[in-house]
Write the structure tokens for this entry.
Amino acid sequence: MNLSRRSLMTAGAVAFGGALGALFAGTGPAPAAARGYGPLVPDPAGLLDLPPGFTYRVLSRAGTPLRSGEGAVPGNFDGMAAFGAGGGRVRLVRNHENRTTAALRVPPVEGLTYDPQALGGCTLLELDPAGGVSAERVALAGTAVNCAGGRTPWNTWLSCEETEDKAGTSGYGKDHGYVFEVDPADPHRSGAVPLTAMGRFAHEAVAVDPYLGVVYETEDAFVEPFGLFYRFLPARPLGGLGSLRAGGELQALRVPGVANLAVVDEPGAQFPVEWVPVPDPSASQTPIRLQDFGPGGITHAQKLEGCYWGNGGVHFVSSYSRTREGSPADHHGQVWFYDPLRARLRLDVVFGPASDVQLPGDSPDNICLAPDGGLMVCEDGGGGQYVLGVTRGGEVYPMARNADDVGKPGAPEWGEFAGVTFSPDSRTMYVNAYTPGTTFAVKGPWR
């Protein structure tokens, strides 16, 4: 199946349940009014192209002074979530995917720093009722390659390190590859404590079951052996801030007879699954994805990235799969849905194939629910980058575009979009440009 950005799913697709309704269930073109918000209008400022009626505000730029006086705003903006703060105020927690070569580190702050040799972490923006930035400060420091993450039902942020480096490698003073909890209301309450029982691997994103407290985790491994999809069974499920430190059991997904999810290319395909205990979650000697999971082996996938909870289950993304990199099949990206009540895995969306890498719609990454019940997808592929919307009827439309692909003189060469999220009232979309690090707030006639 060969799908591009402009027509993602038509006949043969399977609907999401719950709030997404008929998403991907259409059997023909959606009415023009349902396909999005219209063509993107070139931005005279050369920053962000949006549909008619939409406007943006730049909230934060890498390299400018933090309002807290702690130093400069760090670079490499990645995953993000928005939290209500009462009275129309919003708090944004934002990851910084900094490696040891980062030019703009997250400044170390006493009580919030895990490993002073690591340059990543999170910053916190507080927005007033008018949408302006009233405060900006460090929320977590001394962590490494903070990529994405996920929010908890008790309104904290789980920030994920996308690395497996141990103490003594890459100049680090401590082991890395963990999840850290950040309290947006008071980061000093959460501190900088690794949630070691949730595993040490190249974390990408997490999603928490709000009913049972199970935490689902993706592993972003783009070279062989590819990553795994995990679940963590907390000893204190839904216990609030700090409860995940009490430990629990880490398990990995096995789809019997499917060694790699890339071989599945038919939307609607469903599979029973098994969950296998991880032999050594700390990866003290061997990376988890290389450990012995018994006679049935384990199921891998290339570039497992975005992950979120919705509609009674967890949606997660395989950003792409390439045979030239050792994967058994090519695709531009998959969106999967795991139903925990039925213990079944379903393929909902396929972008592809990878031979069309320059076509629009390659490499979906961060995803979230849109106000209309569809999806917003951050693209991390070649050429100009987009935030894509997907309607409930299955049509893909451009929601935002960085301006460097339309030939504007002096326009910055943006990196990927990341961290797309909506305000609690669904009236504002927040999204990051990875580099040069920029956080945008987008307002308009959201449906």
Remarks:
- The chain is about 0% helix and 35% strand.
- The longest strand covers residues 133-143.
- The first helix runs from residue 187 to 190.
- Helices lie at 187-190.
